[in-house]
Amino acid sequence: MSTKFSIYKLEFTTGVHFGKGMLNDSDCVFYADQLFSALYIEALKFGKAEIFYEAVRSGRLLFSDVLPFASGRYMIPKPLLYVEPPNKGDSEEKKKYKKLKYIPIEWLQSFLTGELYFEQNPMEDFGEYEQRVMAAVRRKDDTLPYYVGVFHFNPGNGLYVILAYQEYDEKELAEKLLESVSYSGIGGERSNGLGMFELKKAGKGKDMLVKYLEKQSRKKLLLSTALPREDELSHALEGATYLLGKRSGFVSSVDYADELRRKKDLYVFMAGSCFEKKFDGDIYDVSDGGGHPVYRYAKPLFMGV
Known about the structure:
seven-stranded antiparallel beta sheet
């Protein structure tokens, strides 16, 4: 059965707090495993958790990291491939290439052929960071201030996510869950009004994204956090160039344990990694002695390069 793609923009109406390990800092993007957790929590509310889990685990419903959308352009992770810069001896050009984390999809072909010239990082005016003072109320008349890192998207900028699906029912469920998340918020400090967004279907500019998503090529660009199953790992590593990242954090469930407990760490391939061999990945249980499973999404979504 052929895979179809749908692309959605998240236009934020508030600042966001996306964890980077420190409360007083914030990332500006949201990873696929975090999105899965947010969607799964919403699915529980609708009594659709098992249906959602099975659709994702089987690969019938997949999604990318929540990637940047800047100045009308869809950004993708810079491919982890060695490309000779246009001016080989130009140290400034090399520094610019090194700083790039994301590139507009329109730049991809020029980047791969080493013909890309640019004067400004396309993410330079993406948004601004703020350290916001919050107050934790411990007892009556006893508050403790603390700092929270908040990222604000500049006008015209935001994030987008790619859904890959096989049946309309799976797409419909994902849309319903994304819409629900838009009201409850995404990321941390939602109780303080952060992470709210308007969900919109992608319009102008999405065709080139879909073209590369459907492209059959020797090299495949990973667009999500992902980890092959043990029986897939050696095959997946053949010809691969990749970046590993540690995914960790705390379990946000009152039914899991009497006290706040950490999830097991999981090392995954990060978006931007490139592979010659596809793999299916899995949803891993990262619980550690609590009252129920805790799922970490690690299924791949690839783009042909």
